[in-house]
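Now for a chain:

_____
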Amino acid sequence: MHYSGLLTLLLLLAPASCMRPNIIIMLMDDMGYGDLGGVFGNPADETPNLNRMAEEGVALTDFYAGNPLCSPSRAALLTGRLPIRNGFYTTNAHARDAYTPQVITGGIQPSEVLMSEWLRDNGYHTKVVGKWHLGHREQYLPLNHGFDQWWGAPNCHFPGDDKSVPNIPVYADDTMVGRYYRDFPIDRVKGLSNLTAQFTQHAVQFIERAAAAAGGDRRPFFLLWTPDATHAPVYASSKFRGRSQRDMYGDAVMELDWGVGRILDTLRRHDLANSTFVLFTSDNGAAVISAPRSGGSNGPFLCGKETTFEGGMREPAIAWWPGHIRSGAVSHQVASVTDIFATVADVAQLPLPQDVTLDSKSFLPNLQTGEIVDNSIFYYRGNELMAVRHGLYKAHRWLWSNSWDEFTNHHVDFCPGQHVVNVTSHDQIDATSQPVLFHLGRDPGEKYPIPPGSAEYKSAIGPLLAVIESHLSDLVPGEPQLNWCDVAVQNFAPRGCQALGQCLPRLPSNPRKCVWPH
């Protein structure tokens, strides 16, 4: 493990329970690489607090989601394991994106060791504020997986009719306190809601209570902050609506940036900045299908959410820990959300969980010294390894944007305005025998495949094939959790609905295999 000399000395001289840093992970929803100003390049440059965070910390330009879709990426972050290992995938069809709508029967399994459980077992006070998305049935909710507290919702904020489709419940810990649209308004037409302000306030209050705790009640804390304003239908409060150059979506980004600023200012005000490691990133690329009013920007990268091109998985990321990591630095360290687990272990000087296969490698050495840690990125779509990155080269084993049926009959386009011949295909192209190779340094947009007969291809493909072979040789897939759906398991009667008079009659059970068109 690598630590700064001062931090190591302090940890050796003081009780670990007093000296362990606080941990905050800020995970945005469908926010793209090109949605931030500063080093990430959005010309509107409407994220001053995130710009300051990067100036005081490290901006990571080569950081990746765990999957091109929300639920599997969130599971990857909290388990330090790829979705193919932790079960957040489907085998119902080849290479299909799947997630946790409220008809899903599966969710995060008790056999998985979540970062929240591991940190709580090591003395941390834990809270998640925002969207959970690892299963909405009671056994899958946060308080059963290592979180002491929760304020937020189990699913995306899609509207229902409270008949055949319930509106999504909002929870305070393990009890429902209302429903989206009914008790927590979201005006989809005007793009208005106060939810980001509420998510921010709950995060700030958690930090303030931790700072106010005295003596033996004081513990390090872990806060997972997961606001969802940049997921369609996007929203912002009236204070921010209409302020951005980028319409509703830009307003949502501006308010999230404000929320980041409030949280960091709270740490500064309570003298917790130097003792709190903060990481900001997103769960997957921007949903360019919803752009420009309700979707973001993936900057120079190809396609967007739900694809394994760079636009689907390459994310903005900023690390902040004043006095312990570099400041004003730009890092080209290759890393992903699965690597956060091992990095947090290094930050907290805790041993990683035993008897579990992790896909996690600490990037703390890079944050502290600039040392590049050798690492690879595995781009999965459902049950298929679509591509691998090692160094600056990326090899596609399978190529697919989405189906002809979805593109032609339903007008679903994950690569609007972008077409690369034999790359952005509506047919699944099997390239396993001769992977399609790109150099992401000179071609970050994946527009110019390296010719297979060239000397460069022959030289570069060997190490990538070795990485692929090594990965697949010992891969043991987890039991798929995203295969089965049933309308009866929707959020009809969450705990607490009786007190609110909001229990809804359940529909008859009708288990079926979920249909995942993408």
